[in-house]
Amino acid sequence: MVERGISKMSNLEVDVAVIGGGPAGLSAAISAKEHGAKQVVVIDRNSWFGGILPQCIHDGFGVEEMGISMTGPEYAESYIKIAKKKDVHLMHETMVLQFNNKKEITAVNREGLHKIKASAIVLAMGCREKTRWNAMIPGDRPSGIYTAGVAQALINLYNIMVGKNVVVLGSGDVGLIMARRLKFEGANVLGVLEILPYASGLPRNIVQCLDDYGIPLFLNHTITYIKGKERLESVIIAQVDEKMNNIPGTEKEIKCDTLLLSLGLIPENELSKNVGIEIDEITGGPVVNQFFETSLRGVFACGNCLQVYDTVDILSIDAKNAGQHAAEHAVSQKKKIHGYNKVTKIIPTKGIKYVIPQMVIKPGRVHFTLRVKKPGEASTLHIVNKDKEIFKKKLQCVTPANMVEFDVNISADIITSSENLEVELDG
Questions:
Q1: Cβ neighbours of 335 (radius 10 Å)
Q2: What is the per-residue pLDDT for 64?
Q3: Engineered SS bond to 339: which of 2, 333, 362, 390, CB 3.0-4.6 Å?
Q4: Taking the domain 6-128+266-331, which CATH number applies?
């Protein structure tokens, strides 16, 4: 391994290369080190590590994982310190241009072009926010329109107030948190609009960010037109029916100078697509097996580029598992962690939006995560193999905002038969 001047090297060989230096990337890199990888590098395009954590100044990070509550910056700093202590090499302000099926990475920074040969790669590129153009909102193009994450960065990192009279479109968690944050700063938050009949953010954020501060939530509502010559002047809102069509006669104009968009997140997977990794149409992330390995052998995926997580804590826990398996692959490349040439696909059916992993390649205990399609009361989760139930779990209530986690023992007979497993929800 090279010394500390890693960014000056034009050629580099490592056991594990992690693309992305957010919480998932740092967690995976540390775990890879702890599980036998000697040379681990984290490559990030930003001038800092921790992803969006430095701008998340509210607390609550680390509770599920470490048992203590930290702010985003504190949580990020804890991981950065561990990474440095374990001699994980950190390359910042470095853009990964591409990698190939031989796990050769091409990256560039101010020092020039870098060729990095890795025995295993962990994808941890995170996600990006949906914009006005993803929602196809017609109207003028004035200033005063921000994604919730951009507004969060402006206020928390640069002390720039984004506006006085604010409407939030979409009830994603960052939008809910920013509605409360703007209220703290003295803004008049006129309401949060959600096109669905239920909130898309976590129930606790609805209570703590909206209900506790008297901020109204308008379900089955959307924005139909944006007005403003230079600065935003108003938005036209309307109710929608079950088919998401505007209901005539429900239009209403709201005077405002600022619009925050909290429309959801898109996993960053341009690098994955360019090398031919199979992408799940629903999650927008790579298709993986129970080892977080993608369709390209030796390339693993974790964090929000795999699926959009509820909390950073659960994201970090899964990323540690991805880092462990990447290290095992790198250290013992001749060892077949697969164990079988057969693949059992996991198929979401009734009431299920998606399931991860999407395939199982080795018998044993497998950790699954999934999201349901719509909210419901008491339900029962079933996993069926050839009409035979192999798993059942009762759920008190379900909502798309809450990820469901569970473990299942998968037998060797199921793997060798290559029969699909169907996941369904009753209730």
A1: 10
A2: 85
A3: 362
A4: 3.50.50.60
Task: Find the farthest-apart pair of alpha carbons in the chain and give their distance in angstroms, rounded.
Answer: 68
DSSP state of 306: T
Give CA–CA dist 381/353, Å, rounded. 13
CATH of domain 344-426: 2.60.40
Q: Is the N-terminal amide bond of 267 cis, ω within 30° of 0? A: no
Q: What is the pLDDT of residues 154-202, one digit of tens each?
A: 999 999 999 999 999 999 999 999 999 999 999 999 999 999 999 999 9
pLDDT band at 335 (very low <50, low <70, confident <90, very high): low
**pLDDT at residue 322 is higher than 90:** yes
Q: Which two tokens stand for residue 188?
A: 């008049």
Give the integer Cα–Cα distance in Å for 390 and 406. 13
What contacts 397, CB < 8 A, 6 or more positions away? Answer: 375, 376, 377, 378, 379
Number of separate helices (H) and strands (E) present in the chain: 10, 25
Which residue type does 20 have?
A: G
Q: Are 229 and 256 in contact (CB under 8 A)?
A: no
